[in-house]
Every structure is written in structure tokens, then in C-alpha cells.
Write a structure and sequence with these properties.
The protein has 491 residues and is an alpha/beta fold. The protein folds into 2 domains: 13-237, Rossmann fold; 257-489, Rossmann fold, CATH 3.40.50. It has 20 helices and 10 strands.
């Protein structure tokens, strides 16, 4: 794309200034249209060092209302804490909420190309990063985001001239470092790497716009025109259903919930003996995964009153409290609802060596949100594949993902609901919503069966915990967790 880049005809200087003022005013108006339409907008600036991204950004936002946009400056090298999370984590936590703009002064491109150009990223690792980026951008667009990507292009001689000018001024010398001069000295190598990246991530849903950055005013006008056109298209397309994607991940067969036998029990002696042994082993493994920097995500879904809380408690009681956190997931807060539905879970991912336990998860998209009408049919139908992609991203980054469905029958749930209702110290556990959901048992069972069938991947399979006997379910969960951690530690 860069090698065969054909520059647009540059207007006269006065004409550029006139059109730029018009486009700036138009963007200010479009910003309010975006706010009213509740479209979240990501504008990504990439390009050569000293190509003028910062100065162009200042001019682009000149007439915009600062209450409804933010600027994120992303360094090519993640911090130590950022490096202990999946590759996409530090970018996903920055995505804007609906009706707002987020301008990225470099994004995921530079983290990939900077090491690729130095030969520090082999083909396999590079291709995985590309797949992750394309998946992420497509998910964002499918979920209503406008993603606009700009690459600021200048030649080697022009870059050197600008670098030297910045370096010579004591007020701007800090903006130039050894990496900038390395890029200029190895311009042809970097050109090939950048060109490869742009081609590999140029998709119709999130295309690249190559900006002739030899003149900053002309570059600003190009960016403004493209953004305004993109906004017109995004608002026009608002509400149009995104296409459903074919699942490409290997799945394991599942058994319908109604056919799972729930007569599994364990004696008192067996329970206490196994509980003690599994707690001791889990305590040992927690130290090992911390030393080996292995992140762990444990997911709990299941029927109300199935025993998720007690099950979680038996796992955490064997862990060092400094190394885990339990996330009780309720209805999304307004600022969470205003972003991609996976955003609040990206924010809660553990860093390496730590454990995150989710009491309810992203699967609410295909259960509660589906049945209660909190999202469209297109939204929850797309979610199966998006969730598989999300979990694959976690697993590929080294996260151990363990998923539990805690299963009981309708009669057991009724007995536990009644006990809660009639026991004062347990009444806080039962709500009118629980009783309403119970009336939809058959609908939920159908939704859960479909969820298990479509997301029971080989890399993140579901484990059903038969929980009519809660003690049996607790021992089974502990055994599954210890086995998964032992496998991860012995890789």
C-alpha cells in the first residue's frame, strides 16, 4: 500500500485553508450527530516518526467539544504491568463509550511493526498478532463502532530533516529518541514491514487511509475529509444488522441438560478427606502459577440457587488472598452498557500469576440479555462466535480458562428457593427476579443448551457440575481446577 501509494492532487494553499475551516466546522456538527446516534468512534493515527501526527491531531480536534472526546497515547513498548496481560488488553480497556470519540496516537500497529522490523517477531507470532487485530477491529465494527485508521506517510529524506530539526531545538529534542533514528537509518526495512502490516489489516469494515504528510495543513484536510465521510456512512449504517460469522473453532459434543444424571453424591468422610487433600494441592499450585506467571480465569454460570457461591468459596479458601479476586457480575452499569459488551470483562482480566474468578460472565449475552430482550437477536446470535474468539485470544496468550455450569433440577431449585424465603438469615439471597426467572425455566434451559453446544470449544470446554449434592459439585470443581493448573505448570 505504501510502495504503490499515489498521492492525491494537492490544492493551492488558500484553497486548503478554506476547505479545512469548512471541514472543521462540519466535524463539530458531526460530533453532535455521533452523540445523538450513540456511535462510538475510534480514530487511530499511525505513521513514521516525526510525520506530524500530533500537530494534525491538534488541528483536527480544534472545533470539537472536549467533553465528548479523549486522546490516548500508546507507547510501542508495553509497561511491565501491561505486558502481564493479553496483547489486546491495554487497547481494549481504552475503547470509547457510545457517542464519544477516542483518538489514538498510535495503537496496536506500532507494537507489532517496531519489533517485526528488528527481527524480534517471527512469522508465526506476527500472524497471530494480525489475526488478533483483525478479529478485534471486526468485532468492534460489528458492535456499532466506527474505526478509522490513518497512516502518515513521508519519505526518508523528509523524515531525517524533521528529526534533525526537532533534535536541534532544546524545547523539542525530547520528542526524538534513538528508535526514531534507527527507523530512519533502516527506512527500507521499515517500509516493507509497514507495507506488509497495512495490507494484512486493510479490511472493508476498517480500511486504512494513507495520508500524504509532507505538508501538515494538507494532511489535516485529508484526515478531516475522511473522518466526516466515515461519520456519514456510520450513521447511515446505524442499526443495520451485522453478518453472522461461521464458527471456525473445534467443538466438543455436549449432552442436553435434561439428560444429565443428577444422582451423584459423596459421603461425609469422602468429602472431608478429599477436600483437605485438594486444598493442600491447590495451595501448592497457586505458588507455582505465581512463580511461572500463569494467569487463570475461572468462570461460573448456573441456575439460581445451584450453589455457585459455596463452590467458589471452597476454591478461594485454598488460595492466597493476595493472588486472586472474585468478580460478582451483575447488570452492566451505564458506562459499561455504553461500550462493547466484552469491555467490562477485558477490564477484569487477571495479570500473569493471578487468578480471576467470575461469578457469572460474558455468557449473560446469550442467556439473560437474550431472553429478557436487552439486546437484539443479531447481537446474541453473533455473540457465540465473538465469545469463542475472546476465549481463544485468552488461551493463546497463556491464560488458563476453566468454565463451570452448575446444574440442578427444577424441583431442587424450588426447594432451595422456599428454604431461603422461609429462613430470615437467608432471605437476602432470594428476590422477585429469581421467582420470575424460574417461570422461564424451559426457555433458559433451551438457551443454555444452545450456549453449551456452540461454545464448548476444545481449548475452553465447559464442565458441568452436578450440584443436587453441593459437596459432590465442590469436590468435582476442585479436582478440575487442580488438574488444569497441573497441566499448565507442566507444559
Amino acid at each position: 500500500m505504501l510502495k504503490d501509494f499515489a498521492r492525491a492532487n494537492k490544492p493551492e494553499k488558500d484553497e486548503i485553508k478554506l476547505h479545512m475551516a469548512e471541514e472543521q466546522a462540519k466535524l463539530a456538527t458531526n460530533q453532535m450527530r455521533i452523540k445523538e446516534a450513540k456511535v462510538p468512534v475510534m480514530v487511530i493515527f499511525e505513521g513514521w516518526g516525526s510525520a506530524g501526527k500530533g500537530s494534525v491531531l491538534s488541528r483536527v480536534i480544534k472545533e470539537m467539544d472536549p467533553r465528548f472526546f479523549q486522546v490516548a497515547t500508546m507507547d510501542a513498548k508495553p509497561t511491565e504491568d501491561e505486558a502481564r496481560h493479553p496483547f489486546l488488553w491495554r487497547y481494549m480497556v481504552e475503547i470509547p463509550e457510545e457517542g464519544h470519540f477516542k483518538f489514538f496516537d498510535t495503537c496496536w500497529m506500532e507494537e507489532v511493526t517496531s519489533v517485526r522490523a528488528r527481527g524480534e517477531l517471527d512469522d508465526d507470532a506476527y500472524n497471530k498478532r494480525i489475526d488478533s487485530i483483525n478479529m478485534c477491529e471486526r468485532q468492534l465494527v460489528d458492535n456499532g463502532y466506527l474505526v478509522m485508521k490513518f497512516f502518515f506517510h513521508i519519505g526518508q529524506k523528509e523524515q531525517r530533516r524533521r528529526l534533525d530539526a526537532l533534535k536541534a531545538d532544546k524545547n523539542t529534542s525530547w520528542r526524538v529518541d534513538d528508535d526514531d533514528y534507527w527507523e530512519n537509518d533502516h527506512y527500507d526495512i521499515c517500509l516493507n514491514v509497514n507495507d506488509e502490516y497495512l495490507r494484512d489489516t486493510n479490511r472493508s469494515s476498517a480500511p486504512w487511509y494513507i495520508i500524504d504528510a509532507r505538508d501538515r495543513t494538507w494532511a489535516t484536510l485529508q484526515v478531516l475529509e475522511f473522518i466526516n465521510r466515515g461519520i456519514d456512512v456510520a450513521i447511515h449504517n446505524r442499526g443495520i444488522a451485522a453478518p453472522l460469522r461461521q464458527n471456525v473453532f473445534p467443538l466438543k459434543k455436549t449432552i442436553p441438560l435434561a439428560r444429565i444424571p443428577l444422582d451423584k453424591t459423596i459421603t461425609d468422610d469422602e468429602y472431608h478427606t478429599q477436600l483437605k487433600a485438594l486444598h493442600q494441592r491447590l495451595d501448592e499450585l497457586h505458588n507455582v502459577i505465581y512463580r511461572m506467571r500463569i494467569p487463570v480465569v475461572i468462570c461460573y454460570e448456573g441456575w439460581d440457587a445451584a450453589g455457585k457461591g459455596g463452590n467458589i468459596k471452597r476454591i478461594t479458601s485454598a488460595l492466597d488472598p493476595r493472588g486472586y479476586i472474585v468478580h460478582p457480575i451483575a447488570s452492566p452499569e451505564p458506562h459499561e452498557k455504553a461500550r462493547h459488551y466484552l469491555w467490562r470483562f477485558w477490564n477484569r482480566l487477571p495479570k500473569s500469576g493471578h487468578i480471576a474468578i467470575f461469578d457469572r460472565t460474558w455468557y449473560g449475552r446469550v442467556m439473560v440479555e437474550r431472553l429478557e430482550g436487552f439486546c437484539s437477536e443479531n447481537d446474541w446470535q453473533r455473540a457465540y462466535n465473538e465469545i469463542n474468539e475472546f476465549e481463544k485470544e485468552l488461551v493463546d496468550s497463556g491464560v488458563v480458562v476453566i468454565k463451570f455450569w452448575v446444574q440442578i433440577d427444577s424441583e431442587t431449585q424450588l426447594a432451595r428457593f422456599t428454604d431461603r424465603q422461609n429462613t430470615p438469615e437467608k432471605q437476602w439471597k432470594i428476590t422477585e427476579e429469581d421467582w420470575r426467572n424460574r417461570e422461564k425455566w424451559d426457555q433458559y434451559e433451551q438457551a443454555v443448551d444452545e450456549m453449551l453446544r456452540k461454545t464448548n470449544t476444545t481449548f475452553a470446554p465447559w464442565h458441568v457440575l452436578e450440584s443436587v449434592d453441593k459437596r459432590y459439585a465442590r469436590i468435582k470443581a476442585l479436582r478440575i481446577v487442580t488438574e488444569a493448573l497441573e497441566k499448565a505448570c507442566n507444559r
